[in-house]
Every structure is written in structure tokens, then in C-alpha cells.
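ok so I'm stuck.
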Amino acid sequence: AVVSTQSTWGQKTAINQSKQSYRHLKFILKTLSTRMESLGFTFPEMEDNYTVSYSQDQGGMEVLYDITNIFLDAVIGGNFFPDGFLTEEKFPDLESVSSNFPTEVMDNLQPILMANIPILVCIVLGILLAVVSLIYGFIFCCCCRAKTRLRMTMGSRS
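replied:
not stuck anymore, here's the structure
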């Protein structure tokens, strides 16, 4: 009976802390919202499919912006996490995200990796390009130094 009383007390304490955290977060958001509105700022209306658009004239950079957007849409086309991963049942509040997120990621590692294959390929190719550039630079410098020394020794003999 003592064990169940302690676990019930622990659960009540956790619930009370969660409620206090929620009230504190709500107060912060309300204060922030009031300050933003006094400055003329407002929070955007959040929807499930929130997209950012930019309608200014981009001038000569428009082609570069379009190429960048095409690449990013191909690489980051979908969600970072598989469907059904971030649900209110798994993560009902902010505290559960910090405590359950690492275990949920490890349990669903393969679907997460499968959802992010294009990003992983870009990361691997970027690292590979950096390593190849470094190796090429060392080889180029060594060959130029050897060629310069050869010219200097051949020039001094003539």
C-alpha cells in the first residue's frame, strides 16, 4: 500500500508540475503576444500546411532562386518524420517530448532514415566532395612544388 501511495503522490506531483509549466508557458505567450501587438506585430495564423511565399521582384537573381528552390524541394520534399510519428497521443505536452523523443526516434530509426534519404545523400556527397577537394589540393601543391624545384635545379645547371 505504501508503494502505490508513493507512486500516486509522484504522479500527482508530476501532473501538478506539468500544469504549472503549462500555466507558465501560457503566461509567457500571453505577455509576448501583448508586447508584439503593442509594437504592431501579430502572430501568423498557423495551419496544417503552412507555406512561406515571397512575391518581391527578384531581378537577376530569380534564376538562381528558382534553381535553389527546385533543389530544396527535391531534397526536402516531404516531412522529416514518417506519418503518425508526431501525434498528440505520443507527445501530449512539451515535457513528454523531452523525455520520450529519444526513445521514439530509436524505435522508429529505420522509417526516419527512409524518409530522409535525399538529405542523407546530400550530406554524404558534401563530405565526400570536401575530402576529395582536400586530397586534390595536397596533391596539386606537392606536384607544383616538385615541378618548381625541378625547374630551379635545371635552371641552375644551364
